[in-house]
Amino acid sequence: MNITFNGNPTHLHEGTTLGGFLREHQITDKTDGVAVAVNDAVVPRRQWADVHLRDGDTIEVIHAVQGG
């Protein structure tokens, strides 16, 4: 199955969950300052493990940064 992750084409195994995919990228529900959207819809952290990714999905991970 093929998805787009932060603008880059990525291949995944069928049945991959959003939570599993994010863990592979060192992002967990304990990671501060992160928002995740699938197909332009923000997914609350508590739902990451329940979202099954599908062929053609687009995932965007946004990291908040501090500065001035």
Please give a structural write-up.
The chain has 68 residues and is mainly beta. Helix content is 10%, strand content 31%. Strands 2-1-5-3-4 form a five-stranded mixed β-sheet, with no helix packed on it. The radius of gyration is 12 Å and the shape is globular.
Features:
68 residues, mainly beta, five-stranded mixed beta sheet, 5 strands
Outline of the structure:
By secondary structure, this protein is mainly beta.
Mind sketching the topology for me?
Blueprint: E1 2-5, E2 8-11, H1 18-24, E3 34-38, E4 41-42, E5 58-63
Parallel strand pairs: 1-5
Antiparallel strand pairs: 1-2, 3-4, 3-5
- Element-by-element helix/strand order: EEHEEE
Helix content: 10-25%
Uncertain runs are: none
Assign the structural class, choosing from mainly alpha, mainly beta, alpha/beta, alpha+beta, or little secondary structure.
mainly beta
Task: Count the E strands.
Answer: 5
Major β-sheet profile:
5 strands, mixed
Strand order in space, largest sheet: 2-1-5-3-4
- Which percent range describes the beta-strand content? 25-35%
Rg from Cα = 12 Å
Q: What oligomeric state do the depicted chains represent?
A: single chain
Distance between the termini: 41 Å
Average pLDDT level: 94
Please state the overall shape, judged from the principal axes of the Cα atoms.
Answer: globular
How many helices? The count is 1
